[in-house]
Amino acid sequence: MTTTADQQALSDALAAEYAAVYAYGLVAAYCAPERAKIVAEFTAAHRTRRDATIDALKAAGATVPAAAAAYTTPNRVDDPIPAAQLAATVESDTATAWRAVVERADSPEVRRTAIDALTDCAVRQATWQGILGAAPTTAPFPGKS
Fold first, then answer.
1. Domain containing residue 81: CATH number
2. Residue 59 lies in a domain
3. Count of CB atoms within 10 A of residue 66's CB?
4. Could you tell me which residue ranges the DUF4439 domain spans (predicted)?
5. What per-residue confidence (pLDDT) applies to 11?
6. Does residue 46 lie within any of the structural domains?
7. Alpha-carbon torsion, ordered 31, 35, 38, 43, to 10 deg
8. Residue 18's domain spans which residues?
9. Per-residue pLDDT tens for 93-104?
10. Residue of 30, 42, 124, 128 with fewest CB within 10 Å of its CB?
C-alpha cells in the first residue's frame, strides 16, 4: 500500500521520466549513427519506467501529473557530442529523482522499485560517460547531487 509520501515521491520521479523521454527524442535527432540502437534502447527503458510509474500512481488512487509540453535542455544540442552529454545529464537527473524516492518512500515496494530504477540509471549514465571518454565512468553514489 502506498502512502502520501510514496505518491509524492513517485510523482516527482515521474516528472524526471517525462523529461527523460522528451530529451531522448532530441538525443535521437543528433546522436552519432552508431549510437542509434543504444538511444532507442535507453528511450524505451525510460518510457517503460514512465508507464510503470503512471500505473503505480493510478493503482494508489493518486492524481497523475501531466507531462509538460516541452522541456529546457541544459546545453545546446546540435551535434553528437552535445547529444551524448545531454543523455548523460538525463541519466544523472533521473538517478537523482529515483534516489529521492528511496530516501522519501514509506513502503518497501516503492523503495524496491526506486532502487531498481536508480540502478538502471546508473548503468546507463556509466555507458554515456564511457562514450564521452569521462573517467571515472561511474559515480560512487549515483543520484547524489
1. 1.20.1260.10
2. yes
3. 9
4. 9-143
5. 97
6. yes
7. 10
8. 4-68+77-132
9. 999 999 999 999
10. 30
